[in-house]
Specification:
Layout: E1 8-14, E2 18-25, E3 31-38, E4 41-42, E5 49-50, H1 52-70, E6 74-79, E7 84-88, E8 91-92, H2 108-112, H3 118-121, H4 132-142, H5 144-147, E9 152-155, H6 156-165, H7 172-175, E10 182-183, E11 188-189, H8 191-195, E12 211-214, H9 216-223, E13 230-232, E14 235-236, H10 237-242, E15 253-258, E16 262-267, E17 280-284, E18 290-296, H11 298-306, H12 315-323, E19 327-329, E20 345-347, H13 355-376, E21 382-386, H14 393-403, E22 407-409, H15 415-421, H16 445-455
Parallel strand pairs: 1-6, 6-14, 15-21, 21-22
Antiparallel strand pairs: 1-2, 2-3, 4-5, 7-8, 7-9, 10-11, 12-13, 15-16, 16-18, 17-18, 19-20
Domain Carbohydrate kinase FGGY N-terminal: 10-243
Protein name: Carbohydrate kinase
Pfam families: FGGY_C_2, FGGY_N
Length: 457
């Protein structure tokens, strides 16, 4: 807790596609203002990396703008996973690597001999740089001289917290996100960390809600904020999505966090059904507990299939797709999701569809993929969807029909930001779920779903 009265909380929310600065009213948890920019990747030597300077300037400018308009009393941070900063003293030892860089795979043969068993980490083997330890191993092999300068490894939310406060920390939600670095059952670093002598690089583990420090004079001068503005340790974005519901919804329940990734997490669920070959894993929540999780790149696939189109879909459009046997099959992003080895394709006459019918086919596809993910992560008794998919009412209604469970769309499109704002222990309004959607009704839906599954290679 902090003695300072917290009225407005600024959340730095860095997603894989976009970075946002969101201001919340701490009491009502209502969004006051949002600023955003693209999360650009710089595709130059030594490897594709994030535009850290651009993001930092966006944060400073945004904090100044929001503070001038509303006053900021605290700062929280949430970011995407599979990302860490290698620090040499008080600066980056190397640029922060983009996890979609496939060059990391050049060291997979050696790395695979070192990575722990799934039973230890509940972290499946993933392509490109999605296993963070594989990135670090690649950097240690390809940039040996620079790696000898490394003094600290900071998970991505904690990197930004350090930039704001000068305090270095580690935190379990980012450590436990398919990194190969963490053992959820042991609540400690994995055998790989010890075997590679990396343990000393990781600062002490702090709670996501711990106030690391105040921003201090330099940041205060650059932004106009009070130098005593507190900054919390920060949290991985999917786990931030869980926070509003922990303690407020009776387990087991599932939260579907949507964005670039569509991530299905079941609080109170069993990890027994997880399949390392199907992009299912255990996340670690803010309290250190394993949360069975399965995911696919739903936002990226929607972009591939629909571009910028977002048509209003009617039940008649869904009926048309089912009646005419049009199917979208996974996967349009290779190597991830419940069907990582399948190649995405259309079955049926794709070219005969109008834009609404195409959108209906994609909504059916996304809901069918979510059903598969929920089967891996043990579907909860209540389903809550946050992020962009919460506004896709046809997706919600199909998912309700397929699962037989009540499905609630989050009333706030920035669910990760809301959760991150709750890291400040303020007096907040009680959580109220939106009304459950009405399930889509079509007597042929289950047959359509079974046929869809049978068509997947």
């Amino acid at each position: 807790m902090t003695k300072k009265k917290i009225k407005h909380i600024a959340v730095i929310d860095i997603g894989k596609t976009n970075a946002k600065l969101v201001l919340f009213n701490a009491e009502s948890q209502q969004q006051v203002a949002v600023l955003s920019r693209a999360n650009d990747v710089i595709d130059t030597a030594p490897y594709p990396h994030y535009d850290i300077d651009g993001l930092w300037q966006f944060m400073l400018d945004g904090l100044a703008e929001l503070h001038a308009a509303h006053t900021i009393d605290g700062i929280s941070i949430t970011t995407h996973g599979a990302t860490a900063a290698l620090i040499a003293g008080d600066k980056l030892a190397m640029p922060i690597l983009d996890y979609e860089f496939d060059g990391v795979e050049a060291e997979f043969a050696d790395y695979d001999d070192l990575r722990p068993e799934f039973s230890e980490t509940l972290s499946p083997k993933l392509p490109i740089g999605l296993n963070l330890a594989a990135q670090i191993y690649w950097q240690s092999r390809r940039f040996k001289d620079k790696f000898t300068d490394v003094t600290d490894i900071l998970m991505y939310p904690q990197y930004w917290a350090w930039r704001l406060t000068g305090v270095k920390a580690s935190e379990v939600t980012s450590l436990g996100t398919h990194t190969d670095l963490w053992s959820p059952d042991a609540g400690d670093f994995s055998s790989l960390v010890n075997g590679q002598n990396w343990r000393s690089f990781f600062p002490p583990v702090r709670k996501a809600s711990d106030i690391l420090d105040m921003i201090g004079n330099e940041i205060a001068q650059q932004t106009g904020l009070d130098k005593d503005t507190p900054v919390v340790c920060g949290i991985h974005d999917s786990n931030a999505s869980l926070l509003p519901y922990l303690g407020a919804v009776t387990p087991p329940f599932s939260v579907i966090s949507s964005g670039t990734w569509t991530i299905h997490m079941t609080v109170g669920g069993s990890t027994a059904g997880l399949d390392a070959a199907r992009d299912s894993l255990a996340n670690v929540d803010a309290y250190g507990r394993a949360v069975p999780t399965a995911r696919f790149m739903g936002g990226r696939e929607y972009q591939v299939l629909m571009g910028d189109e977002n048509p209003e879909i009617g039940a008649e459009d869904l009926d048309y797709i089912i009646e005419h046997g049009v199917y979208v099959l996974p996967s349009f992003v290779a190597g991830v999701g419940a069907f990582p080895d399948s190649i995405g394709k259309w079955v049926g006459d794709e070219n005969a569809l109008n834009i609404k019918q195409r959108g209906a086919a994609v909504a059916l596809y996304l809901a069918l993929m979510s059903r598969q993910c929920l089967a891996l992560a043990e579907c909860g008794e209540t389903l809550i969807v946050e992020g962009p998919l919460a506004k896709n009412t046809r997706y919600l209604s199909i998912l309700s029909a397929l699962s037989g469970k009540p499905v609630h769309g989050s009333q706030d499109a920035t669910g990760t930001s809301v959760g991150a704002s709750m890291l400040f222990e303020t007096e907040t309004a009680p959580l109220e779920l939106s009304d459950a959607v009405k399930p889509y009704v079509n007597s042929q839906l289950n047959d359509y779903a079974a046929k869809w599954l049978s068509l997947i290679d």
